Amino acid sequence: MAIPTDNNKNPNVNPFVKWAGGKRQLLHEIHKYVPQLNSRSKYVPKSFSQYCEPFLGGAALLFDLQPPDALVNDINPELINVYEQVRDNADKLIRTLKQHKREYEKTGEEYFYTVRNRDRLRSFNRLSKVSRAARLIFLNKTCYNGLFRVNSRGEFNTPYGRYKNPNIINEKTLLAVSAYLQANNISLQCTDFVELGKQIKKKAFVYADPPYHPVSGTASFTGYAKNGFTEDDQGRLRDFCERLIVDKSCYVIVSNSFTDCIRKLYSGPRFRIKKINANRNINSVAGKRGKIPEALITGS
Length: 300
Ligand SMILES: C[S@@+](CC[C@H](N)C(=O)[O-])C[C@H]1O[C@@H](n2cnc3c(N)ncnc32)[C@H](O)[C@@H]1O
What we know:
The structure is a single chain. The chain has 300 residues and is α/β, with parallel strands linked by helices. It has two domains: 6-75 and 191-299, Vaccinia Virus protein VP39 (Rossmann fold, 3-Layer(aba) Sandwich), CATH 3.40.50.150; 82-170, Adenine-specific Methyltransferase, domain 2 (Orthogonal Bundle), CATH 1.10.1020. The chain contains nine helices and seven strands; from the N terminus they run αβαβαααααββαβαββ. It has a seven-stranded mixed β-sheet with strand order 3-2-1-4-5-7-6, sandwiched between helices. Helix 3 packs across helix 7. The model is unreliable at 218-224 (pLDDT under 50). Bound molecules: S-adenosylmethionine (SAM). S-adenosylmethionine (SAM) binds at residues 19, 21-23, 54-55, 57-58, 60, 73-76, 192-193, 209-211, 229.
């Protein structure tokens, strides 16, 4: 399988939801380790059979590479429903987003909370899939920091974002993504990453961008990360990658934080760890940004 050349890619295929851990700003670093884009390193294969992204989130690398054959996954069912609706129902989705935009322009914050709190009502379960997808995109554009966060009852609880002019509908991008997902063999799954094992082809290229191991608080680590992805899960992911390399000759790239735990996990002979610098909003004061090290791990 070949990744299309830049001339054959659609430049309008881009992430349209803001997602925690989005990889757009690190793409230039990741490119250095992508098969076909890198022809020099002895560790990076020249080609691959299938692209696989087990933690899809905002889909930055999928949309950047636009492979024709991909297996992509996220455990978040609302997010996967968004991609399915963009693929199958783009026109209806855009019409529904336009309704949201009109209402939002009338009352702003009040409308945001009306839409956000719909999942507290019984009628929420009767909402169509396309309405649910439009709701997630609308909330993503208007909530604080585009953060998808639910409470223990599964209710969306991120507060209002106070944006002056949120870009609620990016029609060009939604139509381009819809066309890409329709025209290619892109399998969208919603499960725990380990469940993908059987569907991953021999010699696949797997890019894993899991919830990161927390940088602070590791000294008193209790086994649970704030984002629900535990240190055990990080270990399961390393084992999963190792099995894919050993059993299926896959090539893997893993993004994570540059912590002692992650460096130890991937210290085996099959992996190489590169330290890269990422611009992250690590300060609670909005606008104050800093460079923090991240790990880019390749395995083959
Ligand atoms: C760091 S984000 C991925 C960011 C993405 N690469 C981007 O550019 O936007 C991690 C994603 O992993 C998903 N996730 C968490 N636990 C998972 C699991 N056990 N299996 C599969 N996906 C999981 C989350 O829902 C989240 O969307």
